[in-house]
């Protein structure tokens, strides 16, 4: 545990940011899983769930959770899978 006041604050801030990033990442993974499931089942709301997953991916990039190339790869995979069905 740090002794310097500013270092203590950085530890607290890092913990808060880690939890926030974990929350965003969890929501992102859930959205992608729902989109993949909707594509697999050829559900009626397939396009809406894919659009929501792409939106979550873009938001993660804007917040610095994902790298832009990682996001592009995930969006491309969703689009390819959606078009194949």
From TrEMBL:
<keyword id="KW-0694">RNA-binding</keyword>
<comment type="function">
    <text>Binds directly to 16S ribosomal RNA.</text>
</comment>
<keyword id="KW-0687">Ribonucleoprotein</keyword>
<protein>
    <recommendedName>
        <fullName>Small ribosomal subunit protein bS20</fullName>
    </recommendedName>
</protein>
<keyword id="KW-0689">Ribosomal protein</keyword>
<dbReference type="InterPro" id="IPR002583">
    <property type="entry name" value="Ribosomal_bS20"/>
</dbReference>
<dbReference type="Pfam" id="PF01649">
    <property type="entry name" value="Ribosomal_S20p"/>
</dbReference>
<keyword id="KW-0699">rRNA-binding</keyword>
<comment type="similarity">
    <text>Belongs to the bacterial ribosomal protein bS20 family.</text>
</comment>
<dbReference type="InterPro" id="IPR036510">
    <property type="entry name" value="Ribosomal_bS20_sf"/>
</dbReference>
<dbReference type="GO" id="GO:0005840">
    <property type="term" value="C:ribosome"/>
</dbReference>
